[in-house]
Amino acid sequence: MAINFEFVFTSFMILLISSVQTSSAQLSRGFYNSTCPNVEQLVRAAVTQKLQQTFVTAPSTLRLFFHDCFVRGCDASVLLVSPTNQAEKSHPDDVSLAGDGFDTVVKAKVAVDSDRQCRNKVSCADILALATRDVVNLAGGPFYEVELGRRDGRISTIASVQHHLPSPNFNLDQLNSLFSFNGLSQTDMIALSGNLSGKNMPRLHTIGFSHCNKFSKRMYNFSPGNRIDPTLNLQYALKLKQTCPVNVDPRVALVLDPFTPQTFDNQYFKNLQQGMGLLSSDQVLFTDPRSRDTINLFASNEQAFYTAITKLGRVGVNTGNQGEIRVDCTKVN
Fold first, then answer.
1. Residue 286: in which H helix or E strand, if any?
2. Helix (H, G, I), strand (E, B) or coil at 153
């Protein structure tokens, strides 16, 4: 599903990035110290319980956070439900978002509102940001401080998703264009490629999964001269063929990291060095010399690729009097 980003005008890009920088300055780590001092403990308890029920909670929550932030900014608009199926979550790029991610936010919202001091004081956007940090940490990743103070958006449309999420077949230039549009650098993009999960890149590729039809072309009829993508490790390709034969059930999915699929670590980057990036948009990060050095750095330094999530959480946020604090995360007040 190739997407042409030439429609992105430079002036609009500068305007968006400027607004991101301005609004993010109003976020703070202690935003709820006086209104809901226990918010982080409440969210973490709910996330912990949900993760104990199913590990899918981790990649699905991370993917939900990315999809939310890259469409209209981090405003929880992806959580809104339309009775006529016209909200973001009904777009083809969002329909595969796992229900466990949405359920994690719902359960965390209930937990926060169970505290009378906190009831209807914490935005759904902030709850999603905190839940994302917690699934990262509980899956073996770092505990990092989360900037808070986001307000929930009131608009969610199918049209707003179009052209705002990457394709699994994007090359480096296309990836850089989209991330630059959101005020993120190539280094941020590579870091998030190893941290986030789902159908659209980036994914929590260290603990995520992908369906066979998203990478099958790399194993069958890749090009007239190569049936198998030459950048794909041959032994790995043969194993993939066993699980994903021609005309396989489209519901069949594989883990993106075959070595440590349930651990938040830097194995994803080591896999790329061995030609074991499952998707083309993964492997291109190592085959393209412009990004290879960063992959090598992250493969040797497990702490180096975590900081970009904070920058992601600043994208297009509503603060101050913008937006609202939803009573129900699935509908506007």
1. helix 280-287
2. coil
